[in-house]
């Protein structure tokens, strides 16, 4: 039995059939390309910062993310994934076979209004090291996070996207 975290993502726009005055789908050719009406507004951003350990620092994203990926760019290290469902002291490494890991320092990573903060940890804030971050917030129709327990049988994992996911990242 395997446990995991699933990150369903979709980029599916609204079908032309539900958008008045859509130039696609109404012509004699039956063009079925989608139109974007009221696109989903999703907060996501990439940023980089230089580590200041042992001093804590705030990374301003302009929103509170639900998922943050961190990667040191000037030194070898794993991609670290922190999510709001798992909590601030837990993280995943996408290039590792290990399950969830725990920061020994509770200030290593914190979700905050407007962004996140990093403390005294080599994977999040090593002094003088450049770190790239990607932050995403949950949004219906675009990004969701779910936990599940795997079995040896086919499994349907419920999500809150409201549409069929185009991409599912599982660890």
Would you write up a description of this structure?
This protein has 171 residues and is mostly beta strands. The protein is 2% helix and 33% strand. The protein contains 1 helix and 12 strands. Strands 2-10-4-5-6-7 form a 6-stranded antiparallel β-sheet. The chain has a 3-stranded antiparallel β-sheet with strand order 11-1-12, with no helix packed on it. It starts with a strand and ends with a strand. The N terminus is likely disordered.
Could you outline the blueprint of secondary structure elements for this entry?
Blueprint: E1 3-9, E2 44-50, E3 57-60, E4 67-72, E5 80-83, E6 90-93, E7 101-102, E8 109-112, E9 115-118, H1 122-125, E10 130-136, E11 146-149, E12 167-170
